[in-house]
Amino acid sequence: MPKQKIVIGILANAGGVGKTTLAVHLAYEICKRGQTVALIDLDPQRALDVFCGLPSAEAENSVVRVLGKDFDGNWPLVSAWSDPNIEVCQGHPTMAQVANDLVIRRRGEYVLADRLKSHPLRHDVIILDCPATIGIICENAIAASTGLLVPIQLEMKSVSGVADLVQWLIGIADDLMLDPHPPILGLIPSLYDNSRAIHRQYLQQLPEVAEQLRVKLYPQIRDSSEFKNASANGLPLQKYRPAHPASKDFKIIADDIVTLARKGKL
């Protein structure tokens, strides 16, 4: 039997929490460990285009084609940073229309999972960059995922809402009758600024929150203007400024995913 693909959904219930930053830098770290990676952009904002230095794609060359009724199995993939081992299925603004279509389609919540099963990608790890709004596109991501990551901004809205988000993720997995449920691999504090007292305060609270939710808490990913500078150049920070301390913040997560993948635990 073919080896099960590792599909990591990155979800949050708000924008600006660092989902795309996490997706891009995690993909780069995983690839450095000898794994091939596909990034699928499910967000109509298509921030992956910017982070990967890619020109905008037409709808027929984006994930819109994959989720369409007549998909023929020809995934529209482009290499990121001229590396054949990291490929991107680009997003498109018409994903909002796609979501409306999925609501009335049979197995509308399972379309992405069905595509990955019927027309599997060659990659070892697939990362789903999800939209900020909870809805049927995120439900597709959950149904397709073998594991979930939840970035949390160290602000009151994100921290106070993380329990509700985790319960929503579990509830959707129940409603979709997923067997097994995709495990929540961890909460990831993002955009952390040590100079801000409120960030330090919320960071101290998160271990108790994670323990109550029975979810792993990863070390924080720091905030840095260099992430914006790197994305403006279409590069991950590891390539743009490899010596920058923040470029190392993704290593533990990448190590865990690669270890689980090699053990067949996802």
TrEMBL record:
Pfam families: AAA_31. It comes from the Bacteria. This is ParA family protein. It comes from Aerosakkonema funiforme FACHB-1375. Residues 7-169 form the AAA domain.
